[in-house]
Amino acid sequence: MTATQAQTQTRHDSHVKGSIALRAHPTPLQRNGSLNKYESFDVTPVIGSEYKDIQLSDILNSADKDVLLKDLAVQVSQRGVVFFRGQDITAEQEKELVDALGVLTGKPSTSTLHIHPTTEDTSPKGDQISIITSKRQSEYSRGDRSKLASVGWHADITFEPVPSDYAILKIHTNPDAGGGDTLWASGYEVYSRLSPPFAKYLEGLEALHEASFFKDAAKNYGIDLREGERGSPANKGGDLSAVHPVIRVNPVTGLKSVFVNKGFTRRILGITKDESDLVLNYLFSLVSENHDLQVRFRWSTNNKPGIGDVAIWDNRSNYHTATFDYGRSLRVGDRAVSIGEKPYFAHDGKERRESLGLPSWHQ
Ligand SMILES: [Fe+2]
Question: Where do the segments described as Disordered lie (predicted)?
Answer without folding.
Answer: 1-33
